[in-house]
Amino acid sequence: MTTELAGKVCTPCQGGVAPLGPEEAARYLAEVPGWTLADEGSAIRRTYRFGNFREALAFADRVGALAESEGHHPDICFGWGYATVSLQTKKIKGLHENDFIMAAKIDRTASA
């Protein structure tokens, strides 16, 4: 399903919808291996490893470009040899399908 998620497009969230419940989040989480629930289940997070700072910076830049094209923006923390990406739909202060779509697309970006 990671491929299916990566093939979807993030839809604008206007708020007013409930965040995913624990069962729904767990189902989506199973489709994006390597990601974990964070912040008491209101976000997902993954750390990617790289050989040096330049590779981590380049990855963060690619994720930033992807985020702009999808209109869904993660938090990215990076340094020498790593980049940690956190996703949450901020308008609902929780998880939405968009977060898992972005996770799948970021994974595809990391493996490219």
Structure description:
This protein is of the alpha+beta class and 112 residues long. The protein has a single domain, classed as Gyrase A, domain 2. It has four helices and four strands; from the N terminus they run ααββαββα. It has helices at residues 2-6, 22-29, 53-70, 97-111; strands spanning 36-38, 43-49, 75-79, 82-87. It has a four-stranded antiparallel beta sheet. β1 and β2 (43-49) form a beta hairpin. The model has no long low-confidence stretch (mean pLDDT 92).
Query: What form results from the Cα inertia axes?
Result: globular
Say which CATH homologous superfamily is assigned.
Transcriptional coactivator/pterin dehydratase
Q: Name the helix and strand elements from N-terminus to C-terminus, one letter apiece.
A: HHEEHEEH
Q: Which blocks of ≥5 consecutive residues have pLDDT under 50?
A: none
Radius of gyration: 13 Å
Largest sheet: 4 strands, antiparallel
Number of helices: 4
Give the helix proportion (percent range).
40-55%
Mean pLDDT: 92
User: Span between N and C termini?
Assistant: 18 Å
Q: State the total count of DSSP E strands.
A: 4
Strand % is: 15-25%
Domains, number = 1
Structural class: alpha+beta
- The CATH topology turns out to be Gyrase A, domain 2
Order of strands, main sheet, comes to 1-2-4-3
